[in-house]
Each structure stands twice: as C-alpha cells, then as structure tokens.
Design brief:
Elements: H1 3-15, E1 20-25, H2 30-43, E2 47-51, H3 65-70, E3 72-76, H4 79-87, E4 92-96, E5 103-104, E6 114-118, H5 127-132, E7 135-138, H6 150-167, H7 178-189, H8 191-199
Length: about 220
C-alpha cells in the first residue's frame, strides 16, 4: 500500500457517517441498487440496508462491485426487521414518499441519526413501511411527471444530508470506533492478505500507523 493510498483510506474512514443510512425495500433492478450504493459511498454512508425482493436473498449486482467493497450491505428478510434493527440503534427512520403530509426533503434535519427508506421501482414503499416510519419527505416537482427514478431520488436526499452535515462540521471528527477503523484500513489496503488471514482464522497483523506499511516481524504465515 502506497503512502498516498493509505492517506486516502484514512480520509474516507475518518469521514464515514455511521448514523446516516439507507434502507432499500425491494429495489430489485441492479442498476438502481448499484447507483444508490455509489451515492451512499459518495456522501460517507458507512452501512446500507436492503430488504430482499420477494424474500429471496439479494445477489449483489456486478455493476455495484466497486461500491459494495466500500459500503457494507446488511440484508433483512422483512421491512419490519430492518426498521426495528435501525431504530434500536437510535435512528429516526424517514420515508421518501410523495403524500399530502410529507415535508420538503430539504426541510428535514439530517444532522440527527437518520435512515432513509427507498421503495421499489414499480410500487414505491409498502403500506407497512409507511406505517413504521417516523417521518415522510418528498421531492417537490413542477413538471407533468411526479416521480423520479429511485436512485435519483436517493441521490438528491443523500446529498442534501451531506450538505447539512458539512455545515454542521460532522465530517471533521471520526465517528467509527478504533477496532472497526483499524480492521477496515487493513482489509481495504491489503485485501488479498486480509482474505488469507480470514481463511485461516488468524488475527490481522499490525501496520505502521504513520506509513500504513506492514510490520513485517508481526506477519504470521501458516
């Protein structure tokens, strides 16, 4: 790992936002799934969530291969399970859904711990998802078409969240814990070696915190 690569990985992990997430309910088109994950990565989402279409475990699309390396995906069998898990972490769960009572998405306070639920391409969010959410937001539109592609909607909302959090200087201090930070630095910086250690159920060797280089004397090979 070069010093430049190490510095970039440090900067990315230092700005990750574990209290900002997306929950995709039955988003089944690979290109949309991939595009949402790319937006998640771009604004610093640490972990995204998905409810698998028709209860079938979701297979990560090839188009999202780059993003899935940087944004962890947790899948849930049902929307109730996903929402409950996120609320147990102190998240406010909001639904992106046009309705008479929905607020303008720019008026919501994204500096609080927030998960945004995005619905399927054809049917939008289920009644159950809407029932479980704490707040509903919408994207105002002035044209004949009153809906956007789900990945476009997700991007607009996420980048508004980023704007608010940048203004609140929430990207300036690392939020993820030391153990997770050091684990991901190693896995992202040395993916093949990390795979080798995981297969053998060995602890990762330490790296020099100044340079990101492996401390050779600590490497275990079996």
């Amino acid at each position: 790992m070069t010093p430049e690569r190490y510095q970039k990985l440090q900067a990315i992990l230092n700005s990750r936002q574990p209290d900002l997430s997306v929950l995709m309910e039955d988003v089944h088109k690979p290109r949309n799934f991939a595009a949402i994950l790319r937006s998640c990565d771009a604004v610093g989402v640490f972990e995204a969530h998905a409810v698998a279409p028709d209860g079938i475990p979701f297979h990560r699309p090839k188009a999202a291969a780059g993003s899935t390396r940087w944004v962890k995906i947790r899948t849930h069998d049902a929307i109730e399970e996903g929402v409950q898990r996120l609320k147990s972490r102190g998240m406010t769960v909001i639904a992106a859904h046009p309705s008479p009572t929905a607020m303008d998405f720019r008026d919501y306070d994204y500096t609080q711990p927030t998960t945004i639920i995005m619905g399927s391409e054809l049917d939008g969010l289920s009644d159950k998802a809407l029932e479980l959410t704490d707040e509903t937001v919408m994207i105002p539109m002035s044209g004949m078409v009153q809906s956007l592609n789900v990945s476009v909607s997700a991007a607009l909302i996420l980048f508004e969240a980023q704007r608010q959090r940048q203004q609140a200087r929430m990207y300036e201090a690392r939020k993820i814990d030391d153990e997770t930070y050091h684990r991901l630095i190693f896995e992202w910086g040395y993916p093949k070696l990390a795979h080798f250690y995981r297969q053998r159920k060995l602890a990762y060797p330490p790296i020099d915190e100044e340079t990101g280089q492996l401390i050779r004397d600590a490497i275990t090979v079996r």
